[in-house]
Structure formats: C-alpha cells, structure tokens
User: Fold these one by one.
Assistant:
Number 1:
Amino acid sequence: MSETTGETPPDGADVAKKAGKGRLIAIAVVVVGLLAGAGGVYWYMRPAEEHAEEKQAEASSEEAEAEEGDVSASYIEVPPMMVNLRGGGAQSKFVKLRFVIVAAPGKTDAVKARLPVVLDALQPFLRELRPDDLNGSAAVFRIKEEMMRRSTEALGKGMVRDVLIQDLIQQ
C-alpha cells in the first residue's frame, strides 16, 4: 500500500513526536487556563482590597477627628425616662432609663432645642420593649444602637455623635 500512494508508513519516532506535541499543547492549555483563573480571581478581589483600604483610611481619619473633637464634644443630659414595658402578665413592668446625648461640635444648641423631638421618637421604641428584650449582655448594645438610629432620624445626620446609657433599670 505504501508504494502506490507514495507515503511511507509511520514509524515509532513519528508517533512519539505527535504524542509529545499533543501533551505539550495540553500542558500549555492547562497553564494558560490556570493563569487566566488566577488573574480573574485577582481582578475580582482587587476592588475589595482597595475598598478595605479606603475604609481603613476613613476610620483612622474619623478616629483622629474623634480624638480632636472629644475636647469640644458636648454632653447633653436627658431627663430620666420611665416607661411601661409591653407584657401580658398581670403585674406591670417598667424600665427607667437615664442617658446622655453626645452632640456634634457646634450643634449643642440645636440638639437641646429639639430634645422633645428625640424623646418623642424614643417613646414608642421603649414602650414596645418586652422584659425579655432586656435580658442578656447584648441587650444594652441593641437598645443603644436603636436609640442612636432614632435620634439621628429625628435630628438629622451629623447632629448626634453618640448616645451614652448611664442607667437602665427594669422593675
């Protein structure tokens, strides 16, 4: 057969060369795929790293402002609040709360003038608390965060820096 077509039958060396080229191509495809995958992961993760760096820079600048601003921060003591707790029992439960609002520098008079608005925003939240809501170590943290959120909502952003709970007594 090989004499009539003019082709020589493949010997072992030719088969080995073709098999070697096939392996080399397969390895090259795998390497390129791995590099492309690594590049994709790097590209996907890179904005998160940049965003984290921006957050760290903002946090450090806020800490620096807080350290500088603590001297000029004004503390507004709020009259003690006593509200009924929500409960289905025959005996009434009460909570007495004393807290301080930390006003942003230069906003003390505006916060003092609108203090009744803050108290009005906090009353419904405090009245909806159940005695079980005051149990546990995270209870004060949750209450403080909600009070901060409602105070900021009532006064506007940038008016209140913090809410400091002094007493939280359940009777």
Number 2:
Amino acid sequence: MPIPRIRLEQAVLLLVDMQEKFVPHIADWDRVLQRCTVMVQGCVALGIPILVTEQYPKGLGPTVGELRRHLPSDQPIQSKLKFSAYVEAIRKQLADLSRRTVLLCGIETHVCVLQTALDLTESGYQTALIADGSSSRRIDDKSLAINRMREIGVVISSAESALLEMVHEAGTERFEKIRPIIR
C-alpha cells in the first residue's frame, strides 16, 4: 500500500549497510554518504527512531565514521548475514516502536535495500526509499531496483523531500531544527 503522506509520528529510518569496505566501489559514494548523513541528522533532530544494520561487519567493516558520529551514542547496530535488513532484531525493534512507515537508505540498492523493501512491504509496512541516499556499484542496478520497488508500492523520495514532508510547514520549531541540516 503506497504511503499517502510520510508522517513524522509514524516514521522510522532504517540505515542499511553503509560500511567502510563498500566506499571505493559504490557509484556516487560522496553524494550518497552526504544524503544519508542529512537523513540521520534530520531524524535525530526530529526525534525519529533510527535503526542501523551492517552486512558481515567482520569482512566489510563498520558503519562509516561520518555516519556513526551523527548517530546517538547508544545506537544499537545489528549485524547480519542475510541480504535483507528485515532480520529478527530489526523486526523486534520495529514492533516495539509501533511505527508503520520505514524510510530506507543505504547500499546496495539492488541487493540489501531491495530485499529489505520487499520484506517490509510484504509484512505490511509502508516503505519509502530515500533514492539519493542509496546506490549500487553500477547505476543500472540501482535504476532497475528503484523501478522494481516502485512497482510494489514503495514510495521513491529524496532526503530533503522526505524531511520537509514530515515537517509539513515552514516557520515552525521543527522546520527550524532541520533548516540548517538541509541547506
């Protein structure tokens, strides 16, 4: 079911596998990292819960330092071997939060992000891909994955658009919190 509107009180950010060893291989890495950082900072400022996964951290390293430094100091990070980030620990966290909209960003779009979107959608979550905060080694793979996600009802958005949609209007305390982040 497509999301009619991304609502702050229903949203959770799921940051998928933004790890050190991927850095030299991901297309448009600097932009993806910057947009994921905007999402993390915006969600922290707005009090939106953040969930984080790492794919096989022993081999692929930890979440990149640029993102880790913006996460809450007590942020749990779930390691996984499955491609989908919808693993038991994440399922439990989502259930505990009782929020039904999951904002996805991370890598790789055509593998872990896509399989997460498939699982979330199949489980009844409203899912939105932060497209400028996601990429793959090859742009064609990213494009095909975005098309597939769109076909199953995933909303395709950008970091700035999603944050401003949740804030809803300028001149508010919420807007003032994210204005310096999105600039």
